[in-house]
Amino acid sequence: QVQLVESGGGLVHPGGSLRLSCAASRFTFSSYAMRWYRQAPGKERELVAGISRVGGLTNYADSVKGRFTISRDNAKNTVYLQMNNLKPEDTAVYYCNANLGYGMDYWGKGTLVTVSS
Questions:
Q1: pLDDT digits 0-9 by tens, 31-41
Q2: What is the reported pLDDT for 109?
Q3: DSSP strands (E only) in 1-117
């Protein structure tokens, strides 16, 4: 069974930074694009950032462009989300996603990020 385990969330002041990690296992990590999503209270889950199999291509939601950076280390089977200049509206549960095709769509349990003074 595919496993995705997020870590690195927490409470941070506005303007602060956090680095999220997602450790993946039980699939060929380097063969798949990876994505970070988030879900704020009372809102739908939204795509935050995505990265191609070897990391050469990335994409971001407009709301995080210039502040967040997605990266991956295929040797460690881990994808990261560096979040800088955090804002209260970034408060959400952040989820790691691996879509392996053929209906195989996997999610981690999420890590909570709270941005508050």
A1: 999 999 999 99
A2: 97
A3: 3-7, 10-12, 18-25, 34-39, 46-51, 58-60, 68-73, 78-83, 92-101, 104-107, 111-115
> What local confidence, expressed as pLDDT, does residue 55 receive?
80
Distance separating alpha carbons of residues 112 and 117, to the nearest angstrom? 16
Distance, in Å, from the CA atom of 39 to the CA atom of 95, rounded to the nearest integer, reads 8
| Pairing mode of beta strands 58-60, 46-51 | antiparallel
Cβ of 84: how many Cβ atoms within 10 Å?
14
Query: Is the CB of residue 40 less than 8 Å from the CB of residue 92?
Result: yes
- The pLDDT of 11-19, averaged and rounded, is 98
CA–CA–CA angle 14, 22, 46 (5° rounding): 60
Cα 37 to Cα 40, 53, 60, distances in angstroms = 10, 17, 10
Bridge partners of residue 96, in order along the sequence: 36
Report the amino acid identity of residue 71.
S
Q: How far is the C-alpha of 44 from the C-alpha of 32, rounded, in Å?
A: 24
